[in-house]
């Protein structure tokens, strides 16, 4: 079956299933009937579009088909009597994004997708400021927060596999004003991440040659990302699969090498190292203040992990594929962050002079590179630097994906101009991708002598967006569960339930608040300066005033001052795409009963994988 026929079958079946679900659950309520009619119109328009496409396809040359693939697929005409919320739910559920992500794509994106300079380079600053024990404790705490957050996101994304995912959940479960502010800030953050990562990639090249013109390299990396995005979600998926696989293999290789070096197996013959650097110069640096300076860095290094939720609207079978991908995040946290950083702490003392000049984009100060150099292995530091460069490009590629999909969600919710909803016949959110790439042109600031300062100020407007987003995901999950309980329903109707339930979301939300409080103190009184620092504070907290300003803009624009939607007003059914709740409950119960009867090792496997 061709990909076009597959897309048609998937899209038609989604609309049929949703229409059947609404028709079987709706009574004589006029509002329910209007929603059903909108779904029916959506199906009719979709079928008519494919009939016209069939007639024209046989007459077109490959070049004509390529050109026509960029034409817009019109959104369905919805009944004007629908509320804004109902309209956004229907558009998000039946967006024109193509479901072309397979299980292998999501597995690799979940395991290695967002591993970038935060781990490979930012951990060097953390090691310098807090010592190896602070690094280990901070990443353990942040990892536990991330695990709980992704579990909550997984439950929501499998239940509501809509375009925008958590970008829409805040509007749906918290309040439209907060959703508006969070969505715009999150989108802006990823728009700015692209030029930042391109700048970072150009700086990694200077590890080999300081005289290289930064503008030349950012141009090369920019064109690479542009070409990838011409191929739509499959281009993103395949490129991320390859780059994530390289990162995963590199970290596994580093872990094996680090164990050998720590046991004295390196070419320098220094003998067994063990916990030598934990005793001298010590496990902690700058005491509690050092730990507090490391904790926010560890949290920010997980930025992008939530992107697994954005893939739900473009996954072929989110109910089957997403739960497994969500569980893989645990292994990323344990294997690639905790174990690798523990070994880095064994091999690199926090007094190493190369860490003293480290910045968030200076790959020569990466503790991973330094650990290999300390082992006396020639050639491998350059290989590790190349891995860092690939990782940075990977995050830049993810930035275009995240920003463009978030823009589609903004438009669907009525938070942005309708042009942002432009999705072409290949499922590319063309307007969003174009705007993201325009922001990417800021990468040419890399030619400035003050490129590190530029990097820091770009980061200032987006640095805390991920932490705030994670808190919103946990709060959305809590309110979703409360509404279920309020209506006499429970998690037995959910295809995937968060393993820690509401307690994990409570922990995740509290930890996100703790990160913000700690970051406030560290930003006001940075560890490397005496007294308060206005520059450091505003570089870190510029995001919060922007968030509050956007909330105020929405309240004035829409004349809606609600900070929280009342639980009884929250719609938890539109957009679920289920045939029958009773059927779903029976299916979930049968699956759980089957797993319960399996051997213990299979139950353990299904729990963690």
TrEMBL record:
<keyword id="KW-1133">Transmembrane helix</keyword>
<feature type="transmembrane region" description="Helical">
    <location>
        <begin position="454"/>
        <end position="480"/>
    </location>
</feature>
<comment type="similarity">
    <text>Belongs to the amino acid-polyamine-organocation (APC) superfamily. YAT (TC 2.A.3.10) family.</text>
</comment>
<feature type="transmembrane region" description="Helical">
    <location>
        <begin position="245"/>
        <end position="267"/>
    </location>
</feature>
<feature type="transmembrane region" description="Helical">
    <location>
        <begin position="329"/>
        <end position="350"/>
    </location>
</feature>
<keyword id="KW-0472">Membrane</keyword>
<dbReference type="InterPro" id="IPR004840">
    <property type="entry name" value="Amino_acid_permease_CS"/>
</dbReference>
<feature type="domain" description="Amino acid permease/ SLC12A">
    <location>
        <begin position="105"/>
        <end position="561"/>
    </location>
</feature>
<dbReference type="GO" id="GO:0005886">
    <property type="term" value="C:plasma membrane"/>
</dbReference>
<dbReference type="InterPro" id="IPR050524">
    <property type="entry name" value="APC_YAT"/>
</dbReference>
<dbReference type="Pfam" id="PF00324">
    <property type="entry name" value="AA_permease"/>
</dbReference>
<feature type="transmembrane region" description="Helical">
    <location>
        <begin position="108"/>
        <end position="127"/>
    </location>
</feature>
<dbReference type="InterPro" id="IPR004762">
    <property type="entry name" value="Amino_acid_permease_fungi"/>
</dbReference>
<protein>
    <submittedName>
        <fullName>Unnamed protein product</fullName>
    </submittedName>
</protein>
<feature type="transmembrane region" description="Helical">
    <location>
        <begin position="383"/>
        <end position="403"/>
    </location>
</feature>
<feature type="transmembrane region" description="Helical">
    <location>
        <begin position="430"/>
        <end position="448"/>
    </location>
</feature>
<feature type="transmembrane region" description="Helical">
    <location>
        <begin position="215"/>
        <end position="233"/>
    </location>
</feature>
<dbReference type="GO" id="GO:0015171">
    <property type="term" value="F:amino acid transmembrane transporter activity"/>
</dbReference>
<keyword id="KW-0813">Transport</keyword>
<feature type="transmembrane region" description="Helical">
    <location>
        <begin position="500"/>
        <end position="524"/>
    </location>
</feature>
<keyword id="KW-1003">Cell membrane</keyword>
<dbReference type="InterPro" id="IPR004841">
    <property type="entry name" value="AA-permease/SLC12A_dom"/>
</dbReference>
<keyword id="KW-0029">Amino-acid transport</keyword>
<feature type="transmembrane region" description="Helical">
    <location>
        <begin position="536"/>
        <end position="557"/>
    </location>
</feature>
<keyword id="KW-0812">Transmembrane</keyword>
């Amino acid at each position: 079956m061709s990909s076009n026929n597959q897309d048609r079958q998937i899209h038609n079946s989604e609309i049929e299933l949703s229409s059947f679900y609404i028709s079987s659950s709706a009574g004589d309520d006029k509002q329910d009937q209007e929603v059903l009619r909108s779904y029916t119109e959506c199906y009719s328009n979709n079928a008519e579009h494919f009939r016209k496409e069939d007639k024209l396809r046989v007459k077109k040359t490959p070049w004509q088909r390529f050109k026509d693939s960029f034409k817009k697929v019109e959104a369905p005409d919805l009944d004007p009597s629908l509320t804004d919320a109902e309209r956004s739910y229907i558009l998000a559920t039946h967006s024109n994004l193509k479901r072309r992500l397979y299980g292998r794509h999501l597995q690799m994106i979940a395991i290695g997708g967002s591993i970038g300079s935060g781990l490979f380079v930012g951990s060097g600053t953390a090691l310098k400021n807090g010592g190896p024990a602070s690094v280990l404790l901070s990443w353990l705490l942040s990892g536990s927060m991330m695990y709980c957050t992704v579990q909550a996101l997984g439950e929501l994304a499998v239940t509501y596999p809509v375009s925008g995912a958590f970008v829409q959940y805040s509007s749906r479960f918290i309040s439209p004003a907060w959703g508006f502010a969070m969505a715009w800030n999150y989108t802006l953050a990823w728009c700015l991440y692209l030029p930042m990562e391109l700048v970072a990639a150009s700086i990694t090249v200077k590890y080999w040659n300081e005289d290289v013109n930064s503008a030349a390299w950012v141009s090369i990396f920019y064109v690479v990302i542009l070409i990838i995005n011409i191929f739509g979600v499959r281009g993103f998926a395949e490129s991320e699969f390859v780059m994530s696989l390289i990162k995963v293999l590199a970290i596994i290789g580093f872990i094996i090498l680090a164990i050998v070096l720590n046991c004295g197996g390196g070419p320098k013959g220094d003998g067994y190292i063990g916990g030598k650097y934990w005793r001298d110069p010590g496990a902690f640096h700058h005491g509690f203040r050092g730990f507090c300076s490391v904790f926010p860095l560890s949290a920010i290094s997980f930025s992008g992990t939530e992107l697994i939720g954005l893939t739900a609207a473009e996954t072929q079978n989110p109910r089957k594929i997403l739960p497994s991908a969500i569980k893989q995040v645990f292994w990323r946290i344990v294997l690639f962050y905790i174990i690798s950083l523990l070994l880095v702490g064994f091999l690199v003392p926090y007094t190493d002079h190369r860490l003293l000049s480290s910045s968030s984009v200076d790959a020569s100060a990466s503790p991973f590179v330094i650990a290999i150099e300390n082992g006396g292995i020639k050639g491998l530091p350059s290989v590790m630097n190349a891995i860092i460069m690939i990782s940075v490009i990977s995050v830049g590629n993810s930035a275009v994906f995240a920003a463009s999909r978030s823009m589609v969600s903004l438009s669907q919710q009525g938070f942005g101009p309708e042009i942002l909803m432009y999705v072409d016949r290949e499922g590319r959110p063309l307007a969003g991708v174009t705007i993201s790439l325009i922001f990417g042109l800021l990468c040419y600031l890399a030619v400035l002598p003050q490129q590190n300062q530029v990097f820091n100020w770009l980061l200032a407007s987006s640095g805390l967006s991920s932490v705030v987003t994670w808190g919103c995901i946990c709060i959305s999950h809590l309110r979703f569960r409360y509404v279920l309980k309020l209506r006499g329903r429970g998690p037995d109707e959910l295809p995937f339930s968060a393993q820690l339930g509401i307690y994990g979301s409570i922990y995740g939300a509290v930890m996100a608040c703790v990160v913000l409080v700690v970051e406030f103190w560290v930003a006001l009184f940075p560890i490397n300066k005496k007294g308060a620092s206005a520059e450091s504070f505003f570089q870190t907290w510029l995001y919060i005033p922007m968030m509050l300003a956007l909330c105020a803009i929405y309240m004035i624009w829409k004349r809606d001052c609600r900070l929280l939607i009342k639980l009884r007003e929250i719609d938890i059914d539109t957009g679920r795409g289920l045939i029958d709740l009773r059927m779903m409950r029976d299916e979930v119960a049968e699956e759980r009963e089957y797993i319960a009867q399996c051997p213990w090792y299979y139950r353990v496997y299904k729990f963690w994988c």
